[in-house]
Amino acid sequence: MSGIVTVYATFAGRAEAERIGRQMVEERLAACVNILGDAHSIYRWQGQIETATETAALFKTAADRAEPLTARIITLHSYDYPAVTVWPISTSTPSYEAWVLEQCR
Asked: Which Gene3D superfamilies is this protein grouped with (predicted)?
């Protein structure tokens, strides 16, 4: 298992993803954030089936920074129950892992 993880989160729109993503990099909680294109979501909310366009983002971070990163995203997020999950990375190139770890220190 490597010493880095990816944190996946969805946001109400690109502006929110960019604002929070930039702040996480500035605070060194993430080395990088990839803001992906529109995600079309279908979900149940308050007893109704809803659809929405959201923006997904992938945050690259050190494994020991995942908990503070997810807590910070949740604090800044506009949703009542934001989707923020940690994905383990089993292997990575040594140089990439070293870069992520350096950026999160």
From this structure: 3.30.70.120
- Any idea where the domains of the chain sit in the sequence? 4-103
- Backbone torsions φ then ψ of 60, nearest 5 degrees: -100, 125
Other Cβ atoms less than 10 A from the Cβ of 4: the count is 23
Report how far apart, in Å, the C-alpha atoms of 88 and of each of 44, 46, 85, 93 are.
27, 31, 10, 15
31: three-class secondary structure by DSSP: coil
Q: What is the mean pLDDT of the chain?
A: 97
CATH class of the 4-103 domain in this structure: alpha beta
pLDDT at 15 over 90: yes
Percent of the chain with pLDDT over 70: 100
With 0.85 as the threshold, say if the pTM is over it: yes
CA nearest neighbour of 65 among 43, 37, 86, 81: 86
